[in-house]
Specification:
Layout lengths: L2 E4 L3 E5 L46 H12 L6 H10 L6 H5 L7 H5 L20 H4 L8 H4 L38 E2 L5 E5 L5 H8 L28
């Protein structure tokens, strides 16, 4: 079962299985890299991680497609965290406490969660992102060069749209959904956690609340309560 949550600036999706990424930080992770018919060799995006789906050349086309789905797909599960998890179960998660890149080295000790080795902390040597503001406080991961351009605006093309499923048996009618609905996104920096750009994100409002883009500090401050209302008590029930 995949799960997800909508937070202030990106859509975070959790999966019960670890996520593999490209070893080249500048290479976008795409579903086409697991195209079962030709092992991804003929597509624009190449998958360089030799450990991904170890032994995949011995798998059938259907098994290789399933491997990619198992590792990457979140399948639009955001409503679980944006509605059911918070409004029905009454559980709020401080995602920035878990995912902020400044605490990358303490995640396992604190949460028992594994860092994605293909991601990096902004400002570290050889990391393409030089500041937390560039990544909104998160790790920089393969595919983020494209994804981060769509925070606060629409038009993001999910890597899952390039996914090529296993060929059907002869004469079988193809009733499979659009692969874009698999929603792969990119890694959030944690194994098993994916992220997506939030087209409704308001950078100016975020700076007003938090001071800068790379932190959520403003949300941890105490909020002053308004003075008691001078309106008469018109409650019907106590």
């Amino acid at each position: 079962m995949n799960r997800a949550v909508l937070i202030g600036l990106v859509l975070i999706c959790l999966s019960v299985v670890p996520m593999a990424e490209s070893q080249e930080m500048g290479t976008a992770t795409a579903a086409s890299t697991m195209a079962p018919a030709d092992d991804g060799a003929a597509h624009a995006h190449t998958f360089s991680d030799k450990g991904f789906c170890y032994g995949k050349k011995a798998l059938t086309a259907s098994e290789r497609a399933g491997c990619a789905i198992w590792f990457y797909a979140t399948a639009g599960n955001s409503r679980f965290f944006t509605y059911v998890y918070q409004q029905r179960l009454g559980v709020l998660i401080d995602w920035f406490w878990i995912l902020n890149s400044a605490d990358r080295d303490t995640r396992f000790a604190r949460w028992g969660m594994l860092n994605d080795p293909e991601c990096c902390r902004p400002g570290d040597p050889n990391c393409p992102a030089k500041s937390y503001d560039e990544t909104y406080g998160f790790d920089y991961c393969p595919g983020d060069q494209k994804l981060l351009q769509y925070v606060g605006r629409s038009g993001y093309r999910d890597p899952a749209c390039d996914f090529i499923d296993a060929p059907l048996a002869g004469g079988e009618r193809d009733q499979r959904e659009n692969p874009c609905n698999l929603e792969f996104g990119t890694s959030s920096g944690l194994m098993g956690v994916r992220k997506f750009p939030n087209p409704r994100f308001n950078a100016d409002q975020w700076r007003k609340v938090n001071g800068q883009l790379g932190t959520w500090a403003g949300f941890n401050q105490r909020v002053k309560l308004r003075p008691e209302s001078t309106y008469p008590d018109i409650r019907m029930l106590d």
